[in-house]
Amino acid sequence: LTEAQIGRLAQCSSRLIEQMPQLEPKLIQNKKKISRYVFIILFVSLHEKSVRELLDVMQLPYGSPQRLLEFRKYSAIYGRFDAKRKPDKPLTLHEVSVNEAAAQLCLRQPALLTRRDELFPLARQVNSDAFMIWIE
């Protein structure tokens, strides 16, 4: 994406975030019913580490050069490590711009990093708003 496109996504995400209430992080992501034993093992080994990493990312100082990079990494919707897509297949312009919209939203409302179910439609909305202006 060009700097102008990223700037437009940032403007649209700021406008949307201003209309939203302040959110709290939602730390429980997996609502599937699994056995208690498996849950304890998964929670202790994987969940605790990933939650700790995510909370560390959310607390990066605003001036930190790593902040944008880490937010882009953790807010990505398309091309994530757990995706079914082949890793060598490049993302489309739409996918890249939705990922950037998600990152811009999370920069302004870090709790969205823990609310992927809410982040995806918001990122698509920001992308749509910004794209409408690009074609006008």
UniProtKB/TrEMBL annotation:
Pfam families: NCD2 (PF04905). GO terms for molecular function: transcription coregulator activity. The lineage of its organism: Eukaryota, Metazoa, Ecdysozoa, Nematoda, Chromadorea. Residues 1-45, 46-130 form the NAB co-repressor domain. One of its GO terms (cellular component) is nucleus. InterPro entries: NAB_co-repressor_dom, NAB_fam, NCD2_sf. This is FH2 domain-containing protein. GO terms for biological process: negative regulation of DNA-templated transcription. It comes from Gongylonema pulchrum.
